[in-house]
Write a structure and sequence with these properties.
189 residues, mainly alpha, single chain, Arc Repressor Mutant, subunit A, three-stranded antiparallel beta sheet, 3 strands, elongated, 2 domains
């Protein structure tokens, strides 16, 4: 996919990430998505919504589906990443989250997948996100300086946002300094 391709929702990137491990049927994808020790900790999706998202990913050429017939059970579709889907997933995986409101979903998904597929790049992921968070803080600090004598709603809101970003930086710094090893969810290698 080229750089003009619009970004996807977090849940669509999660589906691409799950398919990066290999082809999978819809029911199995949903089971992985809902794992209470994995992505299910931060994201939930109804199975019908997941199938709608799979259809949209297929329309965009990021995944493909192959119907598999079986005499003993109904036919089911096995989904796979296309080269374009893999490229878009890898690009997203290594791009810092660009807005604080997306941190909770996007960064934790990136953290999950980097720990699964590229654990040696965990430090880089964390360092790049810290740098991005510090940029957010700088922008918020500049807004605060311009209204330092006023205590209005905008000032209160900016100070709250600054403290949220500081919390993110503190947590990311803890993660980096402790060299925390993130284990795979139960049952996965």
């Amino acid at each position: 996919m080229n750089k003009q391709t619009p970004s996807l929702t977090s849940s669509k990137y999660a589906l691409l990430g799950l398919l990066a491990a290999g082809p999978c049927h819809g029911y199995e994808l949903h089971r992985k998505f809902a794992d209470p020790d994995g992505i299910g900790l931060i994201w939930g999706v109804k199975i019908s919504n997941m199938y709608a998202q799979l259809a949209k990913l297929a329309q965009r050429g990021l995944i493909s589906g192959k119907l598999q017939e079986n005499e003993q059970r109904p036919a089911r579709t096995q989904y796979s990443l296309t080269p374009g889907g893999k490229q878009q997933f890898i690009s997203w995986l290594h791009t810092p989250v660009q807005h604080p409101r997306d941190f909770r979903h996007d960064f934790f998904l990136q953290l999950y997948f980097v720990s699964q597929y590229e654990p040696g790049k965990l430090d880089t992921l964390v360092e790049n996100q810290i740098e991005t968070c510090r940029s957010w803080q700088q922008n918020l600090a500049e807004s605060q300086e311009s209204s330092a004598s006023l205590v209005d709603f905008a000032t209160l809101t900016n100070r709250f946002r600054y403290s949220q970003v500081q919390s993110m930086v503190d947590w990311l710094t803890w993660l980096k300094n402790n060299k925390t090893k993130i284990s795979s969810p139960r049952g996965e290698q």
